[in-house]
Amino acid sequence: MAREKNTPVYVAALLLFLGGVGFLAFSAFTENSVYFLNVSEAKAVSPDKLTAARLFGAVSDQGIEKHSAGTGVTFHLQDKDNAAQVIVVSYSGAVPDTFKGGAEVIVEGGMGADGRFMARTLMTKCPSKYQKENRKI
Question: 122 forms bridges with which residues in the sheet?
Fold first, then answer.
């Protein structure tokens, strides 16, 4: 008979456990969800919705300015398919060695109040000289 008295306690404990796991999973997905967009798509979205986004494109040859105080760079990010679509990106941090005009990059951050994309991370795509050559024998 002791077993019948403890059943509601076990059910309550199981429900609390499952609720806690569900809450942790939900909060992990909502906090880390980031839009992955090209420049044209980002320009089509209202800036208040781009608080957490990952953009990809090519660095414009014009407009690359290294920050005078410390590390970082401000540059124009072009859409790969439509070079007329450009977003100004400001990044504070170590700039990769492969960063230059024409390089394909991915930046992660959000739109600032001044209309610039404030990047927390900056990643460059490896140049083709590092890719393995396909040779036919």
Answer: 107
Q: Which residue ranges make up each domain of the chain?
A: 1-33, 34-127
The CATH number given to 34-127 is: 2.40.50.140
As a dihedral over the C-alpha atoms of residue 49, residue 102, residue 65, residue 126, rounded to 10 degrees, the angle is: 80
Q: What is the pTM of this model?
A: 0.67
DSSP 3-state assignment of 91?
strand
- Beta-ladder partners of 117: 89, 111
Distance CA 7, CA 16 (A): 14
The angle at the Cα of 76, spanning 73 to 82, to the nearest 5 degrees, equals 155
Q: Helix, strand or coil for residue 125?
A: coil
In 30-127 the beta strands, taken as DSSP E runs, fall at 35-38, 53-59, 65-66, 73-78, 86-91, 104-111, 117-124
pLDDT digits (tens, 9 = 90+) for 73-119: 999 999 988 888 999 999 998 898 889 999 999 999 998 888 899 99
